[in-house]
Design a protein that fits this description.
The chain is built from 13 helices and seven strands. By secondary structure, it is mainly α. Among the domains are: 50 residues; 190 residues, no CATH class. Helix 7 crosses helix 9, helix 9 crosses helix 11 and helix 10 runs antiparallel to helix 11.
């Protein structure tokens, strides 16, 4: 019935709109015959009535990651209040009521176990349905937030950075800005085989502050501080750094890290409620909450962050390896056939061996100069010795001559 009423009202609305349009058309002055002939000759159907349908203005909802960041402190507060309330309620119960609850929980233990199993299955199904393949590397990961929703949050954060650094951003004519922009453009052009590279518009912003840092937002906003430009040795080091940051943006590490944080926070809410419900005092519960946070940090957050940084190093080096044309522009020598890392490792091994040999020779020299060396005589014979002066048990010798130093390789 509701659908019929809605369709009827819709038809009435359309018919009224058409009538009003026809009324307005009837009130318009009729064009001259010459104008009609000219329009008909040009094939223009300017007198056919066209009904225009307009919708309401599109409203933009807040991105899901932003809502999560706003509600994250409130969720922890609710878990603390809930756990503390459960503890206070249990402490206020008389002993007979507590015993009744224990007996009831024991009778329904299989129901409770079944409920826990169902909850675990739902959580596992949620994680399995949110698996995603990492671009470039093809690694399987959990993505709770979509790339599109995280892009909206990235744009908001980029606008905040632009507002914060608006008085320190160098103009585009500055040579430092031109160098960074040339590097970003070259990296993007040389890596067009990466699918995600063409979907991002790279915008360079060089901030004149003594901060030794650079980062690239997921939406392609590049922020490089002049403090970093002052400490890099050459353009190749800057290329590796920008390739590393570009890899973070291409792979979507920010969205991946936020997704993991969302899953861990959901699990920690259950543990946080249990901590505040089971601990006898608020001070002990606060200590348990601190230990829980440290445990989550050392077991999940830090290893996961290190793995993302290692992946960005690998992909960043791959991106920078396709920018070798800059070596010819900078008149750099050609790369050697041997791996420079292997050459460096072999040279360091020789240096260490020579240093050990030299230390050993110095110790032997000091031992010869500082003390006396006693040489034992052969074993005494059974026959009595010939008459003469008594033979001492040892012969004392002076210091031995200095040993020759080993030749150092050229």
């Amino acid at each position: 019935m509701l659908c019929v009423l809605l369709s009827r009202n819709t038809l009435l609305s359309f018919s009224r709109t058409g009538l009003r349009h026809l009324e307005r058309r009837a009130q318009l002055p009729r064009p001259a015959s010459a104008d009609v002939t000219r329009h008909r000759a040009a094939g223009a159907a300017s007198f056919v009535p066209q009904l225009g349908f307009h919708t309401s203005r599109r409203l933009r909802a807040l991105p899901a990651p932003l809502v999560f960041l706003v509600l994250k402190p409130a969720q922890k507060l609710v878990a603390i209040i809930l756990g503390r309330s459960i503890r206070k309620w249990w402490a206020a119960l008389p002993p007979n009521k507590r015993q009744q609850f224990r007996e009831a929980a024991w009778r329904r233990r299989w129901h409770l176990l079944a409920g826990g199993a169902v909850l675990s299955a739902v959580m596992a199904a949620f994680l399995l349905t949110h698996l995603d393949e990492s671009p470039v590397t093809g690694r399987t990961r959990v993505m709770v937030f979509s790339r599109e929703s995280f892009m909206e949050l990235s744009q908001l954060q980029s606008d905040m950075y632009l507002e914060e650094f608006k008085d320190s951003i160098l103009p585009q004519k500055d040579p430092r800005h031109q160098v960074v922009e040339q590097l970003i453009t070259h990296l993007a052009q040389r890596n067009q085989d990466v699918t995600e590279m063409s979907s991002i518009t790279w915008n360079v912003h060089v901030v004149d502050l003594p901060v030794q840092n650079a980062f690239i937002m997921p939406d392609g906003k590049v922020f490089v501080f002049t403090g970093l430009l002052d400490v890099v040795a050459d353009i190749h080091q800057l290329t590796f750094i920008l390739g590393h940051e570009m890899a973070h943006s291409l792979i979507g590490h920010a969205a991946e890290q936020a997704s993991l944080s969302h899953v861990l926070d959901f699990l920690s809410l259950i543990l946080l409620t249990a901590v505040w419900a089971l601990c006898p005092r608020d001070s002990v519960a606060a200590l348990g909450q601190w230990l829980q946070g440290k445990l989550m940090q050392f077991m999940f957050e830090r290893p996961f962050s290190r793995r993302l940084e290692a992946e960005a190093d690998q992909v960043g080096l791959q991106l920078a390896a396709k920018a070798l044309e800059l070596r010819a522009n900078c008149m750099c020598p050609t790369l050697p056939e041997a791996d420079p890392r292997a050459v460096f490792s072999e040279a360091m091994r020789h240096l260490v061996e020579e240093a050990r040999e030299q230390q050993r020779a110095e110790k032997e020299k000091k031992a010869g100069q500082a003390g006396l060396i006693t040489v034992p005589l052969p074993a005494l014979q059974q026959t009595p010795p010939a008459p003469g002066p008594p033979v001492p048990l040892g012969v004392v010798m002076g210091p031995s001559p200095a040993l020759p130093q080993p030749l150092t390789s050229k």
